Amino acid sequence: MHPPPPGAAMDFSQNSLFGYMEDLQELTIIERPVRRSLKTPEEIERLTVDEDLSDIERAVYLLSAGQDIQGTSVIANLPCLMRQNPAETLRRVLPKVREVLHVAGVEMQLTAAASFLTVLQEESVSIHTYAHSFLQVILLHLEHRDTGVSNAWLETLLSVIEVLPKETLRHEILNPLVSKAQLSQTVQSRLVSCKILGKLTNKFDAHTIKREILPLVKSLCQDVEYEVRSCMCRQLENIAQGIGTELTKSVVLPELIELSRDEGSSVRLAAFETLVNLLDIFDTDDRSQTILPLVKSFCEKSFKADESILISLSFHLGKLCHGLYGIFTPDQHLRFLEFYKKLCTLGLQQENGHNENQIPTQILEQEKKYISVRKNCAYNFPVSKLLNSGVYLIHKELITLLQDESLEVLDALIDHLPEILELMSTGGESSVQENKLLSLPDLIPALTAAEQRAAASLKWRTHEKLLQKYACLPHVISSDQIYYRFLQRMFTIMMTNNVLPVQKAASRTLCIFLRYNRKQEQRHEVIQKLIEQLGQGKSYWNRLRFLDTCECIIEIFSKSFFCKYFFLPVIELTHDPVANVRMKLCCLLPKVKSTLKIPADKHLLQQLEMCVRKLLCQEKDKDVLAIVKRTVLELDRMEMSMDAFQKKFYEKDLLDQEKEREELLLLEMEQLEKEKQQNDGRPMSDKTFEKKRRDTKTPAALPKSLPVAVAGPSSGTSSTSKEIKKSKLIRSQSFNNQAFHAKYGNLDKCTSKSSAAAYTPSVSAKTSVISLTDNSFRTRNANSVPASFSPNTPLPSTSRGTGNSADAKSSGKDAQPRKATLKSRKSNP
């Protein structure tokens, strides 16, 4: 049907009307199949059931005279019938189910397998009753001609085996299994026997296993069909765990060795994966004399075999490295390292190019396999800690994986990025330390490029996770490098990205960067940008992000820091023209009030109460007013912290005092370093600083003589002794190194919910102390500061009144209207 063009006048001529009639006839023809698909009165009559029948009677009737769809519905409802009336269901319904399943289709068979499993899990009847009523039905359909149906019944049977008593298992399952596993049976029957044997091993004693089960296992391992050999090989892991170490070494290991040399690639792959999973069972001699040669041969032949073998090998690389650690000779160690390097670049180098005879579909499949290999290499990269001081040898591979075009590779690397970067920056105190330090700046372009690639993709979760992991950078690179290369990017993401979780991740990471910034001038510039571009921004979306940022600041910084710089800019938003901003502010007010200490912050408390009263009296939006009223009740119930320690707030006050001390030490550190540079005429060298750091150990508990930080300049008397200043410098530098270690774990808790898949091969690395004052990596100086970070702009005062700022915001319109998350945008007239 062709509608008239837009704007064209309707033509009622005869030719035009005939054209419309033809179009209508086309529509009629299209609708005819829909009408024919409706049920006829006779069909509806056959599908109608007497409403007076009970559930049991209705089920029996539908199974006897109903259609397949009705019978499937009854079987799906079987667990419910068992809960309501188990005796009648077993006596009347279950026999009908048995009859129907003999001629049932695939859908009904799958439904029955799931229902039988649900009845078992819900324990509607005793195990004895279940075995008597259901077990034979399950065993009868194990060898169904449809593979999906057979697997469904097998999964149900394997769950039943877990709870059946030994005698039932022996008579109903193990004894018939002897004949089912013979070569005269079908391949499907032998495959089912393999999986059942793997499950039965844990249910019998060692004597029964050795006498009745292991002969069947050996027979199936030598089956003429490669599918059966592969299936039985994958069950050897379960069998080994059931029979113990001695029988595993004498029975299972020889079978695995033979299967690892099998002509079928799938059998060799199954043998390799089973060996890797059983490494913990074997002793050092078995690993070095038997398993290591097999692994070496497997690796050497893997590039000549199918890419699927490379995928499995790269995936199990972590387990393999840990299991064989300490056994490699230096030559074997070097070969294995080169093998890993080759896997990291598989598909990227010229020698791995495509064959001219390959068709595009084959090329695409091969690329997918290569990406899977590199993804597994990224997943297993944390095992690089086994290299100790030689970790710099795979620095190039880390850069390659970070720059990989596939986001799957980057995503696999992100989960353990903090420990990888820490390992790369502090990987051992050896003679190659200078080489590692020189190679580290290559990481920064790779990290920034990885973030930009994630930002340009549609996979915002990968981008969010990467930004969360960037919070580790103060632990790895210098404060100046973060300031010049990452801080402005965080601002850009907060102000321009369209994904809220990504914006919040950037906001939190920026707060952590600010927390560990070493220069007061830079901190002031960042605070100024937060207040002016976000808190006082024209877009209400930016003002919402400012409140998110303030919530992070309350969590990460001390109370005095927040009150000094952000308290007044936050409460000024009570006059914001957009209802969503005021609503979000009201939700934040209890946390804002928790930063106050009485009596020192009494004047701030009065301003907070005045703003809340204005909201109560002047708010016109009913949704905001409802939140304000709830917030007022919550604020009234809050107990205020005092300047002196209180027992009920002891832990929180102690943590806040620690934060204040750390912030004060950052100021002391900067001042003392400036004095040292002026006195010596040159900055402290990295080697000197590292030596002082190693020689000085900060105690776990901070000394009580440290002064508590207050908002404003310190009024305490400063010592003029050079020795005291020198000791303060060393103490503050050492404290800054260890403070991040003590706090980073807590700071990253909220950003690491998630994950992904558990990483089995890696082991958490020992926390090591790293200097945050390392100037050897800095690539830019003060002259290269971006215009947006101009040091000449003064920090706006936070002691000004709230009226002028509010009027300024209310007179402007939003420059970037967006869809708000709390409610639709509303503005005051």
Automatic annotation (TrEMBL):
Annotated region (Disordered), positions in chain: 673-726, 780-829
PROSITE patterns in the cross-refs: HEAT_REPEAT
Ranges of Polar residues composition bias in the record: 780-808
SUPFAM superfamilies: ARM repeat
Positions with biased composition (Basic and acidic residues): 673-697
Coiled-coil residue spans: none
HEAT repeats: 213-250, 252-290
Biased composition (Basic residues): 820-829
PANTHER family to which the protein is assigned, alphabetical: PROTEIN PHOSPHATASE 4 REGULATORY SUBUNIT 4 PPP4R4, SERINE_THREONINE-PROTEIN PHOSPHATASE 4 REGULATORY SUBUNIT 4
Protein name stated in the entry: Protein phosphatase 4 regulatory subunit 4
Protein source organism: Equus caballus
Taxon lineage: Eukaryota, Metazoa, Chordata, Craniata, Vertebrata
Gene: PPP4R4
